From TrEMBL:
Keywords: ATP-binding, DNA-binding, Nucleotide-binding
The DNA mismatch repair proteins mutS family domain, residue ranges: 244-425
Origin species: Pseudobacter ginsenosidimutans
Stated name of the protein: MutS-like protein
One record GO biological process: mismatch repair
High-level lineage: Bacteria, Pseudomonadati, Bacteroidota, Chitinophagia, Chitinophagales
Alphabetical list of InterPro entries matching this protein: DNA_mismatch_repair_MutS_C, DNA_mismatch_repair_MutS_sf, MutS, P-loop_NTPase
Listed Pfam families: MutS_V
Any one GO molecular function term: mismatched DNA binding
């Protein structure tokens, strides 16, 4: 089962690089093969939404991280094998463009045999055999490699160059008759490339492995969460469940609201992939979907203002909620595209409606602190803020969550500190 999400959320969380800015994917990508890289991209595009699948993948990666294993293959073997198997079902040509030469066949056959033998040695190593979570995938690989059809492959001694007759025989076996099963074997190898890559990230960055709970329990408990791209981060703790399924977040400009929302949402997203996250501890109930609205652009293509784009976004979320899905929803500065009065009323009305959906979790940030006061009567709403401390006329930010609703309003102080009014009145000196 796959987690429901969309391109807006992918862009909000900066999952992939954009305009030369690295994405979350780049932090996790240490794969050695093109196939592994593509497989990792698919994982990022389609997080999981079933507890067993998430915990199994997480357990496999955790086990490899504990073993601290290196990728056991030379990437050049994959280059030769992939080029060779890309021509499955075709006889070797005489060097024409797009066809395999006799040398390509020789290299491809040798590479495939070596990969198969190395993979067999890897999965039969005592440390890998003991990984219970990997046992099912390991058995599928072993059954494939131990098939009688591949007996000559597994017995072949590659110390010397293969004679032409042996190459021709193996070519018929590998590329013509058994190409489909070899493609399947490559997919297992790409998965292994991803597992070992992510295990390396977990060890290098000291990321932790979240624990997935049953779907429908609507719970997130996370300690020490931070954004994986931030150097020397300030961490925060968050707990959400049915008794506090809505968090109303306030804070002045530059206090760190958007960064916190990205940090938590990224952790939730990665946790549904079974990947390690930037935190000290995390457990979460599996959700059906995750939708964020942190950097919503005007939709000029349909002539929509920012406010109307917000309305359409809320409508989409409402439709998903009405279908009975359990969702993790984030709105940063809800209804910022309209006047304060309408934004106040709309924020209160929509948040109260969200609060009635206790099988989902919501975080709403806002500058409109009065809306927070109106929501205090909501029994399952919690209130957090990111404070600003004044050092004379200079605002300083702690980036640490506190309970309550802030009264911080420092926009004019920042404007004065930057000398904007002086410039407008007297000209820039």
């Amino acid at each position: 089962m796959k987690l429901h999400t969309d391109e807006q959320t992918i862009d909000d969380l900066r999952i992939f690089s954009k305009r030369d800015v690295a994405g979350i994917y780049d932090i996790y990508n240490h794969t050695h093969t093109r196939g592994g890289e593509n497989h990792l991209q698919e994982m990022f595009r389609h997080p999981l939404s079933d507890r067993e699948g998430i915990n199994t993948r997480s357990s496999v990666i955790r086990a490899f991280a504990q073993l601290d294993l290196a990728f056991p293959f030379n990437a050049s073997l994959f280059d030769m094998a992939e080029k060779y198997l890309a021509h499955s079902g075709h006889q070797p040509g005489k060097g024409e463009q797009g066809q395999l030469s006799e040398k390509d066949v020789q290299n491809g056959v040798t590479a495939v045999i070596e990969l198969m033998q190395l993979m067999h040695s890897f999965i039969e190593s005592p440390s890998v055999v003991k990984i219970e979570a990997y046992s099912h995938e390991r058995k599928l690989i072993a059954d494939l490699l131990c098939d009688p059809a591949f007996g000559p492959v597994m017995r072949e001694n590659l110390k010397g160059k293969l004679p032409y007759s042996a190459v021709a025989a193996f070519d018929q076996l590998l590329r013509i008759r058994e190409s489909a099963r070899l493609e399947k074997l490559l997919s297992y190898l790409y998965s292994l490339d991803v597992y070992l890559s992510i295990a390396k990230v977990a060890n290098t960055r000291k990321f932790i492995f979240p624990i997935a709970l049953e779907k429908g329990t609507a719970r997130i408990h996370i300690k020490g969460v931070y954004h994986p791209a931030v150097q020397n981060p300030i961490t925060n703790d968050v707990t959400m469940d049915a008794s506090q399924s809505v968090i109303f977040l306030t804070g002045a400009n530059m206090a760190g609201k958007s960064t916190f929302l990205r940090s938590l949402s990224t952790a939730v997203f990665l946790a549904h992939m079974g990947f390690p996250v930037a935190a000290a501890f995390m457990e979460f109930s599996v959700m059906d979907g995750i939708y964020t609205t942190i950097n919503l652009p005007d939709n000029l293509g349909i002539g929509a203002s920012h406010f109307y784009a917000e309305v359409l976004r809320v409508r989409k979320v409402a439709a998903e909620l009405k279908s009975g899905k359990s969702l993790f929803i984030v709105f940063d500065e809800l209804f910022r595209g309209t006047n304060v009065k309408d934004a106040h009323e709309a924020t209160v009305a929509v948040t109260q409606s969200f609060a009635s959906r206790t099988s989902s979790l919501f975080i709403i940030s806002s500058h409109i602190v009065e809306a927070g006061e109106d929501l205090r009567q909501q029994s399952n709403a919690g209130f957090l803020f990111l404070p600003t401390r004044m050092n004379g006329h200079t605002p300083e930010y702690t980036y640490k969550l506190e309970r309550g609703i802030t009264e911080d309003r420092h926009g004019m102080i920042i404007i004065r500190n930057e000398g904007i009014l002086d410039i407008l009145q007297n000209g820039k000196k």
